[in-house]
Amino acid sequence: MSEDQKRILERQLWGVANVLRGKMNADEYKNYILGFIFYKYLSEKLERYVNEKVIVGEKFTFAEINEDSKEGKEDLDHIKTACVGELGFFLRPTELFSYLVKKGKGEIKNQKTFILEDLKNILNDIEKTSAGTASEDDFKGLFDDMDLTSSKLGSRENDKNEVVVEVLALLSGIDFKLEDAKSDLLGDAYEYLIGEFAAGAGKKGGEFYTPAQVSRLLAQIVSMDKKRIKSAYDATCGSGSLLLRLGEFTDVVNYYGQELNPTTYNLARMNMILHGVHFDRFSIRQGDTLKEDMHPDLKAEAIVANPPFSAQWKGDTDPTLAHDDRFSQYGRLAPKSAADYAFVTHMLHHLAENGTMAIVLPHGALFRSGAEGHIRKYIIEKLNYLDTVIGLPANLFYGTSIPATVLVFKKCRREDENILLIDASKEFEKVGNQNKLTDENIKKIFDTYKTRKEIEKYSHRANISEIKENDYNLNIPRYVDTFEEEKIIDIEEVAKILKELHSNELNLQNRIAEFCDELKIDKPF
After folding, report:
1. Which of 7, 258, 288, 518 sits in a 20 to 30 Å window from 265, CA-based?
2. What letter would DSSP give residue 220?
3. Are 263 and 35 in contact (CB under 8 A)?
């Protein structure tokens, strides 16, 4: 997408968002905007598929089929079977996005402009047509967060209807270019909106979105030297953006994810479908990852994750966890006040022997002692899985200003005698209230990771013996010396400069006094 296209698209999308912005906060109206975009996408995708693949060569289009005629009903039965098998859902011609917009604008003869009830039924029908099929899990409850009865849309039913009609009409004017197989304009639009909503949602934004520059870094790391990845996994997948980022750098066959928050879980499934991932190529499940592992047999080639920092969990208060294969071998459980290493060991359990895992954690995970120190030591000393530690700048993530780190794990490491530590915490760009990694920053981090090059004040390969001497404390300043000597100040030179400034000041005061005498006004000093 060109910069001009991007700017036009952003203006159009925010024009849509403006309709709802004054009625509710970003965390609420995102569900409507993204849900309506998803409905538009499904509708246009189905209509295009039917016209080009199912009834190709006929003298009528899908939208022209008479649903009440005998022939029309027979045609729709045939088309429905094809659509559910290929797309995972079905819509009738009168349920298409384009038809509903025309009806809402009063362009359908003998039809009322009230479409609110129609829209509720259509969204329910999308889910119903997938029931009992291979796509059921991917469409079930997908629109649950779009509450079309909410008083925030309007106090009266007609008010709500007017708002919905306006939003759909504005969206109908945006061409997502679905006919262009190489274009991902819709995916870009969705990603843009999710990022903007995350920024506007404050602390909640960090729950469903990893900043694009961080996700690109993780995706490059786990896909390095791999043209094809059979399985990619994110145990705390949020909106799915981090998982999908892998597709920019390698061919991913199957995506797996789990998400606790039901609303974010719905976003993730929509995001997958909007990015063209077929329903049989992804498995996103909803539930507490640490409590209920919903992909128990998975061994993934690539794992990326940005778990909630230092989340509460049952930890050592649940005796069953000590016998769970994901945690039992480490001898200690992560403390209940910080689940960081519970997520680490859970994902190591799911990492394939030839896989790479990159996980974002709070900086404290590098040096905290107790149970976390014990687990960290076991991973390094006994398993030798930790490959690289990357220190990131503070204030990169929505909802928290604390610095984060990326830990990279491999079960079959090439450099098994040392761990690479990179201090990238000082190199970033300030954008508003947030810090941001630039393309140059990311390139430097990735190139250093790839070559394992030692750079003064930036990176260091620490031998296992060196790490052992530091009692397995991975605090980066212990290994990468970033100390900058203070510049020596020449006191005599400073005194000389001050004396000159004072002399200049006196000269200026004398000139001002002369001007004041000429103008016969009081002197300002």
Report:
1. 7
2. H
3. no
